[in-house]
Give the backbone structure.
Amino acid sequence: MRYIDKYRLRIQAHHINVRFLKDCYAGDINHPCPSPDNPMGSFEDFKKKQYRESNNYDHGWKNLLLEEQDCRCCYCMRRLNSTAGKINYEHIIPRECKGDEGLNEYSYYASHAPALHDLVEMADVFTMKKFTTQEDIEQEPKMPHITALANLAAACNGKRNSLSTYGCCCNNTRGNKRMMPVMLMPDADENVNYDANGILTITNNDGTLDAIIQELNDDTLKEVRAVWARLCQVQIDLTIVRSFSLRERIEWFKRAYHVTDFTSLPTEVRRYAGEITSNGSDFYWNAYSGGYPFSISGDIRSVPS
Ligand SMILES: [Zn+2]
């Protein structure tokens, strides 16, 4: 996990959110359809192509979220493929939250994440507002949490170790449970740490992160992070490694592990170079290259800004 800056593209995000809401209020300014506080209908309509899809992140929110997150899952940092349809959209404040309990939850989330405080409000609170014209919506600084892009993050939606299997693998046990919004907290990069064995810890965990920490410390992800921690010890420009040929990757791995014979490395290391795959593709390399967010705490902070 790393910090996701929801302010950098806030104007573009606000524009997309407002465009959707204006359409909802277009038929009857007093009775929006779907209502912004409808947890299913509102978000399902917001997912329609005219709001979600566009090559330009000014006009389509899927690419806006990917741009904010450098095309990585907000939890496991796996590279997300924008065309493969394997993206899950996470509501940081769960979309079913409402009423007094919803306000209580909002207080918790907003107290931790400035972007939720500044750019999001509970959808049922938003729905109580009365507008004279659709243009009035443009003046609203906070968007309803069910569709507010500041409350959404892109996560992977496929098994980590296969190209062809489906099913959410990150945070799939959360439901509506409260979870500290680490990725929207500006100090996330200091508090989320990885050691040389790939084990993730979050220093300011208030207990609500126990389940996701456990999920993110599964064996595959620890293996990925341990390999990248080793690779990062080689002085190299991490911004260019995505374009490495197989030969260049192998040379990099040999330097990182101090071996002259690449084949002497164990399979679970070699496969991340893209040399060994069951189906002839570079699955491991493509899914995890650019894994440089996994810098080791207190050691190398070789993360490009
Ligand atoms: Zn993930």
In short: Residues 73, 75-76, 78, 155-156, 170 surround zinc ion (CB under 6 Å). The CA atoms of residues 242 and 290 lie 6 Å apart. Confidence is low (pLDDT under 50) at residues 162-168, 297-305. The longest helix spans residues 10-24.
